[in-house]
UniProtKB/TrEMBL annotation:
Gene Ontology cellular component annotations, sorted alphabetically: cytoplasm
Stated name of the protein: Histone deacetylase
Family membership: Belongs to the histone deacetylase family.
GO biological process, one term: epigenetic regulation of gene expression
Biological source species: Conexibacter woesei (strain DSM 14684 / CCUG 47730 / CIP 108061 / JCM 11494 / NBRC 100937 / ID131577)
Pfam family, one: Hist_deacetyl
Molecular function GO labels: histone deacetylase activity
Domain Histone deacetylase: 37-316
Highest taxon of source: Bacteria
Length: 368
């Protein structure tokens, strides 16, 4: 059975649209913020309307407990977020706060915690958290990139507190998982592995060697236009060998949909079918290295047109299910682009990671 964590109250986090300011006026870019709740709402609706929800174990969700939050965030930062949601000051760019933000972020992190509990209790084999807002850019005392509380970090810390000796975080959002990198920089029990577009938000982040070869930070910066097969190659050539050698007790995935082919914030060309394949591959890897203990959390995804379907496909992949929802772009040129085979630039990027972080790849043959 696959667990499914979603809390409708998280959709109350509905930040205002971005404004372009001129000398005399301000122009709103649409009615909603690009990180508004519409994609999460549609993604959940798809799971429900398709009938897939009936075949999943719906998990009870509560706000993330203080222990999980304080393991990854400073108390003063948590207090500042609460105060800002009550109308107080807030100083962080690209992370606007409304009256609902603190509660929604805490509940979103709670989805990750509920997923961990269900998996570690053995109530479900794997679990999927339909989270909003995202969390992977949030550091110990920093909100950034539409992230306030770091859901995957809370999930990993909660798993540790419950007895998991080692936790592997795999972040395939198009942006670096800078939050987990910073939060667990000095903690060898959590390996923060981020696959992201090279030279993307935030600036000066995500270099392959950012914390050195002896650390448990592994950054995998990739060229644009990697496509479906390219991501699967990265899972085979980088993620799988590291998972085998690190031997985690659980894997937590930050499954951003912004590597999707229609996403306005990334340039990675992954199709919905590609997301299903990624979900299936990471589930098989969890089966191989940690008795299936897998928690997958939604992260960034900014195409209202496509991100909800991509989230559904990831869930289908980890559940081994087909919800029967057709890709509206089936047969179109874009999807053929997603199927373009990996090229030499990707091979070079993978080789750079394997050389820099060679300790994880000893006794491994060439990846091709
Ligand atoms: Zn992102």
């Amino acid at each position: 059975m696959i667990g499914y964590a979603f809390a409708p109250q998280t959709l109350r986090h509905d930040p205002p649209p971005t404004m372009l300011r001129t000398a005399g006026a301000a122009v709103a870019l649409g009615e909603d913020n690009i990180a508004g709740p519409a994609r999460c709402a549609a993604a959940h609706e798809l799971v429900e309307a398709s009938g897939l929800l009936d075949r999943l174990a719906r998990l009870d969700v509560a706000p993330a407990p203080d222990g999980a939050l304080l393991a990854v965030h400073d108390a003063a930062y948590l207090a500042a977020l609460e105060a800002a949601s009550a109308g107080g000051p807030w100083a962080f760019d690209f992370a606007p706060v409304t009256f609902a933000t603190a509660d929604a972020a805490r509940l979103s992190a709670g989805c990750g915690v509920a997923a961990v509990d269900a998996v570690l209790d053995g109530r479900v084999r794997r679990a999927f958290a339909q989270t909003h807002p995202p969390g992977h850019h949030a550091e110990r005392a920093l909100a950034a990139g539409s992230s306030y509380l770091n859901t995957v970090a809370c999930a990993a810390a909660h798993a540790r507190a419950r007895g998991a000796e080692r936790v592997l975080i795999v972040d395939w959002d198009v942006h670096i998982g800078n939050g987990a990198e910073q939060i667990f920089a000095d903690d060898p029990s959590v390996l923060a592995l981020s696959i992201h577009q090279d030279g993307w938000y935030p600036d000066h982040a995500g270099d392959v060697a950012s914390r050195g070869a002896d650390s448990t930070t592994v950054n995998v910066p990739l060229p644009p236009a990697v496509g479906d097969d390219g991501y699967l190659l990265v899972l085979e050539a980088v993620v799988a060998p590291i998972a085998r050698r690190f031997a985690p007790d659980a894997i937590v995935v930050a499954a951003g949909q912004d590597i999707g082919i229609f996403d306005p914030m990334g340039r990675m060309l992954v199709s919905a079918a590609g997301f299903r394949a990624l979900g299936a591959r990471i589930a098989a890897l969890a089966d191989e290295v940690c008795e299936g203990r897998l928690v997958v959390c939604v992260e960034g995804g900014y195409s209202l047109l496509y991100a909800p379907l991509c989230a559904l496909r990831v869930l289908e992949g980890i559940a081994g299910e087909d919800a029967g929802v057709a890709d509206p772009f089936e047969g179109d040129a874009e999807l053929r682009a997603a199927a373009t085979p990996p090229d030499g630039r990707l091979d070079a990027a993978i080789e750079r990671v394997r050389t820099t972080h060679s300790r994880w790849f000893r006794e491994e043959r060439s990846h091709r």
